[in-house]
C-alpha cells in the first residue's frame, strides 16, 4: 500500500466521520457505524485512525490549520488593512462553505476532545484569533482604523463563524459577496451618514 | 403535590439536563444518568418530562421564547432605533450569560430535535430574527440607518450568539458594556473617520 493511498484513505475516513458526526453527534456515532460507512473492518479503521477521538481531532484541527496558513500568507503579503481584513474574511467564509460538516462538528463537539488533542486545537484557534488581532492592530497603527476593544475580534469571528449554521452554498449570495457585506458594515457602520 | 411544585420540579430537571447535555452531549447523556442527577426514579422523571427529547425541546424553546418576549416589549415601547438595537443586544447577551449551558445545548444540539419539536424551535428562532429585521427596517424608514443587506441580521446574531462560547461572566467586561462595544462598531464602523 503506497503512502498516497494511506493518506488518501485517511482523508476519506475523516470526511465520512465529519458527515456522520455532523448528522448524529460525536457521542451518537459508534465505531461500528464508522467502520460500516467507510467500508472497512475495525482493524483497518484502527490502522488508519487509531480512535474515534483522533477523528474528531483531525476534523477540527485540519480546517483551523488551513485558516492559520491562509492568514499567515495574507499577513505576510503587504496588503493594505482593508484588503487584508476582506481577504481574511473571504478565506474563512469560503472554507466554512466548502467544509460545513467539519465546521459544524468542530463548533459543536470540540469540547469532547481531551488532553493534548484539546490543548492543540484550542491553541490553533487562539493563534487564528491572534492573526485577526494583528490585522486590526496594524490598521490602527497605520491610522486606517480607530482603536477598538480587544473583544471585538470575538464579535467579528462570531459574525463569520456563525455562517456554518445558515449559509446556503447554492443561494443567491456567494461567500465573497457576504464577506464584503459584513466588512462594509463593520468598516463604515450602518448609521446613515 | 401542588402545581407549583410540579412546575418547580420540572424547571429543576430541565436545568440539570441542560448542564449534563452541555457537558456530555445530548446523545452522550442517558436517561439513567438524568434520573440519578435529578434524584428521581425513571417513573417520576417520566411524570415530569416524558422523554429526553422533551428536555432538549424545553431547554431550547424556553430561552428563545424569552428573547422573543423581550424583543416584542422593546419593539412596542416606542424606543428610538439606536436604543432599540442596543436594548435588544443587551437583553440577548444578558440571557446568554445567565443561561450558558442552555444556549450551548441549543446551538449544538437543536438539530437532534425531530418533527413538531424541531419545527416549533426553528419557527421561534425565525421569529426572533424577524424582530431584528423589523428593528433595522424601522431604522432605515426613520432615516437613522442606511439600507443594509438582509443577511446582515445573521451576522449581527452571529456576533451576539457566539458569546455563549467565550463570554466570562466574571471577567472584566460585563454584558451591557460588550453589547455597547459591538453596537458602537456596527453603527459607526471601525474605520478612522
Automatic annotation (TrEMBL), chains A, B:
Keywords: DNA-binding, Repressor, Transcription, Transcription regulation. InterPro entries: Homeodomain-like_sf, HTH-type_TetR-like_transc_reg, HTH_TetR, KstR2_TetR_C, Tet_transcr_reg_TetR-rel_C_sf. It holds the Pfam family TetR_N. The keyword Transit peptide does not apply. Signal peptide: none annotated. GO terms for molecular function: DNA-binding transcription factor activity; transcription cis-regulatory region binding. Residues 30-49 bind DNA. Residues 7-67 form the HTH tetR-type domain. This is TetR family transcriptional regulator.
